[in-house]
Amino acid sequence: MNFQTMNKQRKFVLIASAIGVISMFLPWVSIPFLGSVNGMHGSGIFIFLCFVVAGIITLLGDQTKNFDTSMWTITLVTGAIPILIILYYLIDASGNTIFGSVIGFGVYIGGLAAIGVLASAYIFRSPTDNLKDTFNTMKKNIESKINTHDNTTTGSTTPDNSNSSLTNTNPPA
């Protein structure tokens, strides 16, 4: 990995995901006289994994080029999911102030890092990348795999009940 020759999109996503990973170990909730809790609890572990996946994606493939379409989509998802979880956390925590608890600065840094991952992947995308075409391509790929699976199955899809003991042989009354 040569950071100097790395593509701008990959650089910014890598930096934002590294900041996101660091934010997970900062205080997310502080309670006076009791201490603080970091983000590595509950859904925070999932946020951590999203940041790690975004960072790993930047290291895969040709680092001098933008993400290909599938990696671009995954990177967008790994930025969007933490944003949604953190927004839910902030909304939920604003009404629950147990023992005077305060939302820690790690949540805000994590949210900014998630926005950074999402924005970096989107702003510095290839000119051919757009969400509509990406979803249409994914839809076609899924449909073709389903059709391929249906064409390769052998035998009948309906069960053969000719030898079944459940067949009614009595004439109607």
UniProtKB/TrEMBL annotation:
Composition-biased stretches, type Low complexity, lie in: 149-173
Which segments cross the bilayer? 12-34, 40-60, 72-91, 97-124
Residue segments, region Disordered:
146-173
Indicate whether Membrane appears among the record's keywords.
Answer: yes
Q: What keyword terms does UniProt attach to this protein?
A: Membrane, Transmembrane, Transmembrane helix
Q: Which domain of life is it from?
A: Bacteria
Q: What is this protein called?
A: Uncharacterized protein
The species this protein was found in: Ginsengibacter hankyongi
